[in-house]
Sequence to fold (439 residues):
Amino acid sequence: MFGNRCMSVSVRPERNEIARVLKLSHERGLLGEEHTAAIFYARAHLANRMQRCRAAFPVGALHAIAVKALPFPRLLHLFRDAGFGAEVASLGELEIALKTGFAPATIVFDSPAKTRQELDHALSLGCRVNADNFDELERIAGILDRRRELPAPSIGLRINPQVGAGTIASTSVADAYSKFGVPMEQQNERIVAAYARYPWLDAIHCHIGSQGCAIEMLVEGAVKLDALIKRINGRRAQPIRTIDIGGGLPAAYHAGAEDASFDVYASALRRALPHWWNAADAAVAPRLITEFGRHMAANAAWAVSDIEYVKPSAGLHTVIAHLGADMFLRKCYRPDDWHHDISILDPANGTWLAPGDTIIRVAGPLCFAGDIIGEVSTAAIPTEDHKLIIHDVGAYTVSMWSRYNSRPMPAVFAYDTATETIETIKQKETPEDLFKFWC
Ligand SMILES: Cc1ncc(COP(=O)(O)O)c(C=O)c1O
Fold:
């Protein structure tokens, strides 16, 4: 039996659960010798986060899962079945959302680089679109002018509320400068004028950043957006009906670290902006859209890798693993900004290497020196009989897979603790797949 059958779900799958899932995967022939690495998603974790998200925000809110965080159709199904929408940022992600069965009206198309054809395609389907800038609004106006038969669209403009950068510059998008959206302070008048000019502009959008942005920052962005909405509504007949606050709720990457939560975020928003929750007057309260990815999925998955070699050098032991900068791009290229806890399992008896003084550096398989995914200090030196477990890999890891050195993307599994089922949701790539990629 798995250890975790009750409704309360810990921040990440616990060690006994991980050891048990690995054992079962071997026994059932899912993890043969050719699987030097694999990724496992715990369905209960995803379900728990979905449920918490829905409970925290107003009843009619549309929660659009950020497809960029976990683009697996067989996981996205779970979100669709739970009544979620999908946030997409490319034609590829749009196709994934459509093929997964999300209704177009629940798909939000964001991207700073939408072409005219892409806009035409998304509007024809009836997707929601958030324009990134004024030029994109002009393109949309042109399409709507030409194609009057199109269903009434829901279109927003992405605003940069300029609340500053979080602790990670490369994922902060609401500093004074950002490549995304329209800067609120410098372009306030022009934004208000655009909303006065285009009656079909019925939504407004902002997204502050992904990881490294405190809840206070997210709320500050929403409050600034609300002030702008009041100015806009004062200058046009139809008020803005839809407020899309993006994603950005952080995930905990260190064991024992305090976890942000949907509940804490939504409560802080509600205190600052009670009229967004105006349940007594549902006809007047705006509809909220959220676009969470990381907090929804990061803690739900762990990765396992074989240890191919252990090399003593310079006072530490370097373990050569089968996952590196191909899956952990952010960690390897910006090591000070990102972190994944690593544990070492002896699968023969389900025990874990205890903490100690031996420094184990975990290096990936790729041909460059920066291919290091972290260090862990243990009481003993691991061998090739051990397995590396890398925690919290459910968002922006395998979805950012890099093709350098043409190594295969590992198999991805989803398991259910209650029924003890383990399902392959994506097969390991073959050498033929890799050859085709480059042709
Ligand atoms: C526009 C937009 N929405 C939503 C998200 C999801 O953010 P997170 O995964 O941090 O919730 C992102 C991520 O970068 C984004 O760019």
Observations:
- The domain at 15-42+299-438 is CATH 2.40.37.10 (Lyase, Ornithine Decarboxylase; Chain A, domain 1).
- Residues 1-7 have pLDDT under 50 and may be disordered.
